[in-house]
Amino acid sequence: MRLASSFDAAAAISGTASVQLASLGDEDRLSATTDEIVAWLEEQNFTGTSRNILDIGCGIGRFEHALSKSFNRMVGIDISSRMISIASERCVALRNVELRQTSGLDLAEFDDSSFDCVLAVDSFPYLVLAGMAERHFDEIARVLKRPGWLAVLNYSYRGSFFLDSADVSRLAEAHQLRVVINGEKPFRSWDGDAFLLTRGGGTLLRDASSDTEPEALKNALIRRRKS
């Protein structure tokens, strides 16, 4: 409830800054980052006109709007009523978008194997802070189809790639997910860490063995330093 109130207050000041403080409330800055993330998702073969996508922490609905022609159905959920209100205005003409305010405790309102993809952009840091990250991995694994894909952009704000990578790898293994992209920094306008996971027979552009191996962690760190 405290987090929801904080997001409501931030959105009342600036919807743009409330979903990305680095945008400084500038819609063009936020759009540039959104476009980069959209291009990255499409490059990873994450989207598709037959796919149903769940967006955890949808904020003001920027990905629902930006990706509206690249999915069959997208459900955006957020704990902030004000953000959901802004998102609803933004996406009012999009019939394949559904927006819901949620408690943030779980995904109990969704059936098993109901989504092809789950997207979480800058929402897991708050789940980690609230001690809800493991429960959400449980829930994501439940609602994902086989094959299924999970994109987590920023796992936490702890400032440690190794802690985040270790947590994501551990949770992936526990829920029969495979880490394909392990904490890379692929964006120029935003410093978010990208994790991409697949479940049960997914075919992605990359192939990778378990990223918990030291060599894989070393290679990921080298890529981060170059970006």
Number of strands: 7
Helices and strands: which structural class?
alpha/beta
List SSEs in N-to-C order.
Answer: HHHEHEHEEHHEHEEH
How many alpha or pi helices? 9
Give an overview of the whole structure.
The protein has a seven-stranded mixed β-sheet, sandwiched between helices. The longest helix has 17 residues, at 27-43. Helices cover 41% and strands 23% of the residues. With 227 residues, the chain is an alpha/beta fold. β2 (71-78), α5 (81-90) and β3 (97-101) form a beta-alpha-beta unit.
Topology:
Elements (H helix, E strand, L loop, with lengths): L1 H12 L1 H5 L7 H17 L4 E9 L5 H5 L4 E8 L2 H10 L6 E5 L13 E7 L2 H6 L3 H11 E10 L7 H14 L2 E8 L9 E6 L14 H13 L1
Parallel strand pairs: 1-2, 1-4, 2-3, 4-5
Antiparallel strand pairs: 5-7, 6-7
Keywords:
single chain; about 230 residues; alpha/beta
Summarize the structure.
The chain has 9 helices and 7 strands; from the N terminus they run αααβαβαββααβαββα. It has 227 residues and is α/β, with parallel strands linked by helices.
